[in-house]
Automatic annotation (TrEMBL):
Pfam families: DUF389. It comes from Actinokineospora spheciospongiae. Keywords: Membrane, Transmembrane, Transmembrane helix. The keyword Transmembrane helix applies. This is Membrane protein. PANTHER family: AT15442P-RELATED (PTHR20992:SF9).
Length: 314
């Protein structure tokens, strides 16, 4: 279940309480008149089944509570209550299949921010991938996949396209458009310093029998894996089963391809540069399209609950 907390202007508190009372998936309703100081108003709290969240949030947003007050949701790990059990039974649908659109928009919006942390993780991941390529170490390449933070912006692109949220698409596009070129440039600089120090030469990636060659060998299976990973990733995010995201991270070769571009460019292996770039593009496109398709097939473009408010840059 989810715990709902609403700071509501006093003139709309009765309507908000009525909305919550009327929904079969809501229970443990509590009201504190005049308890809110900034912004001023009443505080309303309730517990609700996850599958009821979109209807409730949509109704509260229709009342303008999100503009003149505030709405917060948090996950409840344990509920010992017959009333809570009844609310979950009465709520339509299954909790595992329910999407809280406001939560999804907020989460993907946060994870797609272009900030120092995102750039640092992506750059470190690409450097790890470069080390894996140079040393022909699949284990290091897998580690780079796990470290890479790129799925957040890719999921945000999918959500933004489906919900027609230009602000979300713009934020995610900026993160990817700046993040990958910067990470590749830093990786190339590191590879250049490595060649100057005599740590490796072109033989590290030329010749046959390298286990890391799969990174630049793009083909139909690259798209298949990207599509499956994108679908699994979005299913994980919408069903709150985040453990599956680790499998998504180590399924696709976005970060390894970016790292390979930096190394191959310094060594003058332009065929492998173009192959890695194609691999990167196929993976990015496949993940976004599959994730968007999952949202459309499972929940539809016009699902309730998204207030359409622009994302904060703060």
């Amino acid at each position: 279940m989810l715990h709902l907390r609403v700071v509501c202007p006093a003139d709309r508190a009765d309507a908000a309480v009525g909305l919550l009372r009327a929904h079969p998936g809501v229970t443990h309703l509590v009201m504190f008149p005049g308890a809110a100081l900034d912004p001023e108003g009443d505080v309303i709290e309730a517990d609700l089944a996850r599958e009821a969240a979109d209807d409730v949030l949509s109704g509260l947003c229709d009342l303008g509570v999100d503009h003149d007050g505030g709405v917060t949701l948090e996950q409840i790990d344990t509920v010992l209550s017959d009333a809570g059990d009844r609310a979950e039974r009465r709520a339509p649908g299954e909790a595992a299949d329910a999407v809280v659109w406001e939560e999804l928009v907020a989460r993907t919006g946060e994870e797609s921010r272009l900030n120092t942390t995102f750039l640092a993780f992506l750059t470190i991941a690409c450097l790890l991938a470069a080390v894996g390529v140079i040393t022909d170490s699949p284990v290091t390449i897998v580690g780079a996949m796990v470290v890479g933070p790129e799925f957040g912006p890719l999921a945000a692109l999918a959500v933004g396209l489906v919900r027609r949220r230009r602000d979300l698409v713009r934020r995610a596009g900026l993160a990817l458009g700046v993040g990958f070129p910067l990470a590749i440039a830093v990786t190339a600089a590191g590879a250049w310093l490595g060649t100057l120090a005599g740590m490796f030469d072109a033989s590290a990636i030329t010749g046959d029998g390298h286990e890391a060659d799969f990174v630049y060998q793009v083909g139909p299976w690259s798209l298949v894996v990207a599509v499956l990973a994108g679908a699994a990733g979005m299913l994980s995010m919408t069903s709150a089963k985040s453990a599956a995201l680790v499998g998504v991270f180590i399924s696709v070769t976005t970060v390894p391809a970016a790292g390979y571009i930096g190394v191959a460019a310094i060594l003058g292996e332009w065929g492998k540069v173009f192959g890695s770039a194609a691999q990167l593009a196929v993976n990015l496109l496949g993940i976004v399209l599959a994730a968007a398709l999952v949202l459309v097939l499972r929940h539809g473009v016009r699902a309730p609950g998204d207030s359409g408010r622009p994302l904060s840059d703060g």
